[in-house]
Amino acid sequence: MSLYKRHKTYWTDFSVNGQRFRESLDTTDWREAQSREKDLITQATQGKLAPSSQQFSRLAFVTAADRYLESRKLELSDRSIKKERQLLTQPRFFFGATSLSRINAESLLAYRDARAKTGLKPSYLNMEMGVIRRILKRAKCWHFVADDIRPLRERREVGRVLSPDLKLQLLRIAKRRPEWEVAYCAAVIALNTTMRGCELKNLRWGDVNLLNQIVTIVRSKTDAGERNIPLNREAMDAILQLYKRAQALGTTDALHYVFPACENGKVDGTHPQESWRTAWRHLTQSIECPRCNLLQNPEKFCRNDKCKADIGKRKNQLAGLRFHDLRHHAITELAESQASEQTIMAIAGHVSRKMLAHYSHVRVAAKRAALEGLSSRASVNADKDSDCSGNDTNHVTNATKPRTANPQVVEKYGRPVRTRTADLYRVKVAL
Question: Which pLDDT score is estimated for 5?
């Protein structure tokens, strides 16, 4: 263990358990250098300090990010690796060639503030900071800033449930344009099966039993999501519509996807469709002209040259509807149909009542109907006993009964059994 100066700054060089540590103490004061050296030795003993032989903490952030993603390939799926690579896009630009050992709490807070000004939600910011945290933990640098970086409070958004009119409006609008056929069929299947978007995109024709009308979910978000779902009439009609489309495209093989990829007008059944985001956004934001009934994107005036009605203030009530909200809606309708919790969880792929409560949004009308049932039962009981007033409970619950002598008193050890009044004692004496 030794202290030495380098350009008027004290450095320490020591070994713990055969590993050499060489760090800058960032001070010119001798006593402060000794104190910081003791702290570093304690951290090294606890395994919180990277030895000098470990070069990862000295790497630039962009290089360290590449090595981190490479090492995670054995631990994560391809989708998770793709997600983490996407989360590291902006941190690469911000930190650039800065080494991991020089990233401090101030720089991390500055990055988070800069990203928050762009309008990002706290949930996404926490995911970005989570990837940075895992990289710094590997470099044994996170404990230096852990006390200053706290996760942001996320807003617990509950899914949206459609009214019956909005549900019909969604399907009616989606059916009006041929380019929205895939989004329409996906919406119908989701509303009638509780399937997630990722489950629909990974569905193959080999997973669909057209004879028995059953869909088998092989790949899902969780293990509980792997299940068999019977198809009702509406879901079956959507599946048959997609099958006719697949026959025209030549993608009906068992390994082909029900929602095949389509790029530059070329359909590839061996790859799944990544997203129908564009069609879904136009579908939920488009408005109908009240005068000519033309379906169009939000504008100030109608696109119809013969109409030109003022539609600037009109807004689609479906705006902001997520595709995942259709799953919330389907589970809510199952809950309102008086299906058992076991049946709902078997269909939706849940493993706990907590998740069922998160997804279920029983409407106020259903709650009111249940409470009205209590009121109706109370009125029926009142009719049976019409002699009693509604608020008179003194004589109803404690009705006076005539005293009758019971000649057969069971005795045990000279005392009556299961009696609390003195009347039975009097009967015994009388006998």
Answer: 85
